[in-house]
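Exercise 3.2. Students should predict the tertiary structure of the chain below and write it as structure tokens, then compare their answer with the key that follows.

Predict this chain's 3D structure.
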Amino acid sequence: MCNLGSRLATIKGAKPIPVIDNKIKWHIDESKFPLGIEKYKVILSFEKSFEILSNEFAPIHFESTDKATDAPIIIRFRDNSDTDIPEQFGKNILAYAFGNYDNFSYSSDIFFNINVRWWDMHKPDYFSLKKVCVHECLHALGFDHSDDIKDIMYWQYQLNDEINFTNDTKQSIRKLYPAAQKTDLRNYVLEAKILNYINSRDLLILGKYLGITLDERKSKSSNLMILKTKL
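Answer key:
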């Protein structure tokens, strides 16, 4: 467990997930889904979770793939009757994840308790898939719990829709994943005079590199506003 005021600790023995072409891929095992929530809402919740992570890890981008063999992070819904889970869900356990360990078949994988009442956001008597996914993904990426109740990595689920990355967590992300230099890159991009002269096509390419989706149907000024807002 981390000490208050310290940088977010990393999971002992876990290694950073390899970043290939500024990407980390993820995959959903669609063999089982929870009841009471539409499949598209489940998938959309995960997509939103990885958008949040892409924003914090930029220019590293998290990308979904249909091929499990291409994905370091695999998401599954399971319960204690399944034979393919590495450990049982304890009482009140919403989900669990593993860091990236050598010679471990479930490295960086995430298991969601299928019996939990899931929703695409927090509401009474339900739990936010998006919020829990961001938390568990950070475990999969190698980060331990935080003692800061305001941080997304706090050890206990908070009954709200907030997903906050404290400065300590942001610094830890930069330290464990040096490619995630969003702060310096943000300042460089925002201060660069070239933004005043860049053409629409190159602006789309820059957005893609930074992990920010721009719309080719929009004007350059609109996309520029989106870029600056999301950086």
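Discussion points: Residues 1-6 have pLDDT under 50 and may be disordered. Helices lie at 39-57, 129-140, 167-176, 182-191, 200-209, 220-230.
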